[in-house]
Amino acid sequence: MKRIRFSPLLFRRIHKWMGLILGIQFVIWALSGSVMALLDMEKVGGHSSSAADAPALHTTGYAPLASLASTADVTGVTLRNLGSRPIYEVRSGAEVRLFDAETGAPVTIDAAAARRIATQANDARITRAQLLPEPNLESRDFSGPVWRIDFADEENNSAYVSADTGRFLIMRGDTWRTWDFFWMLHNMDYLNRTSFNHPLIVFVAFGTLWISGTGFYLLFKSFSRADFRWLRRRRRSAARS
Amino acid sequence: MKVRWPLVVRRTHKWLALLVGVQVVIWTLTGFYMVAVHIDIIHGDHLVRAPQAAPFDLDEVVPASRVIAAAPGTSEVRLQRLFGQPVWRAQTGEGARLFDARTGHPLPPLDETQIRAQARRIFTGDAPIVSARLLTEVPAEIKTYAPPLWQVEFEGWNRPTLYLSPTTGELMSRRHQLWRVFDFAWMLHIMDYEERTNVNNPLLRVATWTALAMIATGAWLLIWAFPRRRRKKKA
Question: Which positions, given as ranges, span the membrane (chain A) (predicted)?
Fold first, then answer.
């Protein structure tokens, strides 16, 4: 058997062959990384609204908790304002129900309510309100049914409002959509766009280490003193003048 | 003059690599770490258990209005549990406050013994607590949170650290060595050595586009990298 010699030739071969196999993804990583660095992170967004500016609750006039319908096995209660009215958000295991906190009447988040909630985050004209039984790609960080409210603004923003709790979830615009496409190319999760820990990317990333590692080694083999002659020449002429 | 493309492309590849080679090695190394260690482990999901959801007896709970009257400016009131007992949690502009849900009395901030007990309840491991400190200044690893916070550190190579709210005993954040390595890798990956958050910094933008040119010329070189074998015998 031929002994492997750790010569520059061996490293050059690894560099070449790994480049041939994984080069496309290496280019795609560099391209998608470059584009994501260029897209303004403020416009990309993805920050949920904070609770800091939530309106204060008034002190009296609430229906007693025990008077609410279906209050068996309650594992959580939240009292807060939804738009201009206070509501109870009652949790029983995984199930969430809303009640008007003053009358005790059940509340559902219909299109009108979802529009009102979305308007608080964006005052552009609404073009469409759509109920999605499952979160789509744009609202994938959340679970449960969501309202999608589309706005006629420059970014073609879509607001997502939880149909269960009425909470404003997130705003997605065209900059985010562009960013998300390149993020998909970067994390190689072409279906769900969320995971960057799947076997394919681990395998390719490991291979790419070999391209960059051998390439870095070859840098020391590819340059000779002659390559830097122009530098010395320039310095000498600078010293003379 | 005829352009000798293989030579031009090779030189470009070589010189660009000299410029960004170190950073490209850093990108592939940090990238490999980030894909190899699962993000759920980095987030520390395995370190903590979710609070158990035992049903409340709503007849013994005082009305929420009592709590709102005692804590002006409250924007949200929540019924939850602390050490198994029902408590009202009022979210005010100055932070959260707890009230005994059976009596409506305000609860004082948790003392060290309670914080240690609470950390034990949340932590999934059985390693002993190394230290529990009330911080008035938050360390860089939880810089988005407002002080004061209890920092409870557990023994182990991974140094699991829980951050608890002194007023509510809630888990605010958790950190451990693998997270800290990830955060360092992320800093190197996005080249924001100060805040570790700005993915639009000029240095990163210049470096990424230079690297793209370097890698694209490398791909271009592949055309000439595999010469067709000459038939030696017939020649």
Answer: 200-220
Distance CA A196, CA A201 (A): 7
What part of B 50-79 touches A (C-beta under 8 Å)?
53-56, 58-59, 61, 63-65, 68-69, 72-79
B95 touches chain A (CB under 8 A): no
Query: Residue ranges of the domains in chain B?
Result: 22-44+176-219, 52-107, 108-174
DSSP B125-163: S-PPEEEEEEESS--GGGTTSPSPEEEEEE-STT--EEE
Residues 6+ apart with CB under 8 A from A151: A118, A122, A124, A125, A126, A127, A157, A158, A159
CA distance B69 to chain A (A): 6
Out of 3.10.450, 3.30.450, 3.40.50, 2.10.260, the CATH code matching B52-107 is 3.10.450
**Mean pLDDT, chain B, whole residue set:** 93
The residues near A44 (Cβ < 8 Å, ≥ 6 apart) are: A175, A176, A179
Q: Does B11 touch chain A (CB under 8 A)?
A: no
Q: What's phi and psi for A209, nearest 5 deg? A: -55, -35
- The C-alpha atoms of residue B199 and residue A36 are separated, in whole angstroms, by 8
- Whether residue A48 contacts residue A139, with contact meaning beta carbons closer than 8 Å, is answered with no
The one-letter amino acid at A179: W
Q: Which residues contact A32 (CB under 8 A, 6 or more apart)?
A: A182, A183, A185, A186
Mutate to test the interface with A, among B212, B214, B220, B222 (most CBs of A within 10 A): B212
Please report the number of interchain residue pairs, chain A to chain B, with beta-carbon separation below 8 angstroms: 169
Asked if the Cβ–Cβ distance from A20 to B68 is below 8 Å, we say: no
Distance CA A224, CA B197 (A): 39
- Give yes or no for A20 touching B (CB within 8 A): yes
Q: Contact at 8 Å (CB) between A186 and A33?
A: yes
Centre a 10 Å sphere on the Cβ of residue A223 and count the other Cβ atoms it contains: 14
Condensed to tens digits (0 to 9), the pLDDT of residues B72-110 reads 889 999 999 999 999 999 999 888 999 999 999 999 999
In 3-state terms, what secondary structure has residue B1? Answer: coil
- Digit-coded pLDDT (tens) for B101-147: 999 999 999 999 999 999 999 999 999 999 999 999 999 999 999 99
Q: How far is CA A119 from the centre of its chain?
A: 22
Chain B residue nearest residue A22, CA to CA: B219
